[in-house]
Design goal:
Elements lengths: L6 H4 L3 H5 L6 H7 L4 H23 L4 H18 L11 H6 L4 H21 L6 H81 L1 H29 L4 H14 L3 E5 L9 H22 L3 E8 L3 E8 L16 H12 L3 E6 L5 E8 L5
Parallel strand pairs: 1-2
Antiparallel strand pairs: 2-3, 3-5, 4-5
Helix pairs in contact: 4-5, 5-7, 8-9, 10-11, 11-12
Length: 373
């Protein structure tokens, strides 16, 4: 059973291909002007040509031979009826561009070129200079079409292969990252948890016999668990530790693509924020900039960093349309903003949105600088 060719790689949309069949009305008009015998033969061959054309578009099997069949039928019309039938060469040109190999394309293209040369040679005595002015450019376009179609098709195939390669790279990267995380977790926690298990069993046995030694073992368990917890935190921090500086670079790119001017003000200072604080502020900045791009319709955006004695403040202001519903210390009921509020709650931070409809929005994110055990 024959299979339809893949449209994305083998042929253009069917409606584009088959709409050309409407132009067979012109050779049909020429044929019906002849005598009855020529009309019968012409209609039969024209129907055969249409069937071959449609079949060559739908099915890849035998396409190379069907192209030559079309060229042969065009030659029949041109030499039996009129030289203008040469323009039916536009029908096989897209099919030539869809041929499987370059060798087949070259062979079919040379056959079409030979047909054009033969028709010009056969009718050279009837061709006037004025006729060449519109005939030659049309024939040149007809001969160039298969090459242009092949170039476009090859470019599309290469783009699809590139996308597939990028997806494969991303998949392999994700797989490698999962393997790395698995190794790190095994190396980080495996030894520590095994040690905790052994020491806890030992402490259980030592409690009735040697309480002092049992207490020491329990203290070792506590020390080991703290070390394991610290290693886990370091591992998790290394997975997705967005920082304010990283998010500012991302904001520049995102706002630039949205044609929004960015202005940076102030600095936090070196080592002002701990890694956890820096990560939370970075995630808040990402969400705020995303909202500016999606919803504000602003022309400019200001990102201000302030480092005070007892807190860090991040201010994001725009000159957009503002928010329709807000409160002096409240928040709009968006999932992103609610997520921001939950993150800040972990470090006892806060967010304040100041907005007036038509007068822009100003978001103030604050986190305290408190030494926590």
């Amino acid at each position: 059973m024959f299979k339809l060719s893949a449209r994305s790689q083998r042929r253009p949309p069917l409606f584009v291909s088959f709409i050309w069949l409407l132009y067979l009305s012109f050779p049909l008009h020429v044929i019906i002007q002849r005598k009855a015998e020529d009309i019968a033969i012409g209609l039969t061959v024209l129907l055969l040509f249409a069937v071959v054309y449609v079949y060559s578009f739908l099915f890849e099997r035998g396409r190379f031979l069907l192209v030559f069949a079309q060229i042969g039928l065009i030659g029949f019309f041109a030499f039996r009826y009129d030289a203008s039938f040469l323009f039916m060469g536009f029908y096989p040109t897209p099919v030539i561009g869809m041929l499987r190999s370059n060798r087949q394309l070259i062979a079919a293209w040379l056959a079409l070129l030979g047909l054009a040369a033969a028709v010009f040679a056969a009718y050279r005595s009837e061709v006037e200079m004025d006729d060449l002015y519109y005939t030659l450019p049309t024939v040149i376009v007809m001969l160039c079409m298969p090459i242009f179609i092949r170039i476009g098709r090859r470019s599309k195939e290469l783009k699809e292969k590139l996308n597939m390669a990028n997806e494969e790279i991303a998949r392999l990267s994700a797989s490698e990252e999962r393997a790395r995380i698995s190794r790190d977790l095994h190396d980080t926690l495996g030894h520590s948890l095994s040690l905790i298990t052994l020491k806890s069993e030992l402490a259980e046995k030592l409690i009735p016999k040697n309480p002092d030694r049992a207490i020491q073992e329990i203290r070792d368990i506590q020390s080991t668990s703290r070390a394991a917890l610290k290693q886990v935190r370091e591992l998790v921090s290394g997975l997705n530790m967005a920082t304010v500086e990283d998010e500012i670079i991302h904001a520049k790119q995102l706002l630039s693509m949205a044609n929004i001017t960015l202005k940076l003000e102030g600095e936090f200072g070196p080592n002002a924020a701990s890694p956890v604080m820096n990560n939370i502020l970075g995630m808040c900045l990402r969400e705020a900039v995303t909202n500016v791009v999606r919803h504000s319709g602003a022309q400019s955006c200001v990102i201000e960093r302030r480092g005070e004695d007892d807190r860090l403040m991040l201010v994001i202001a725009d000159d957009g349309c503002g928010m329709m519903e807000h409160s002096a210390g409240g928040m709009a009921a968006g999932h992103g903003l609610l997520g921001m509020k939950e993150r800040l709650k972990l470090v006892e931070g806060s967010v304040l949105i100041e907005s007036k409809e038509g007068a822009g929005t100003r978001m103030i994110v604050a986190v305290p600088l408190v030494a926590r055990s």
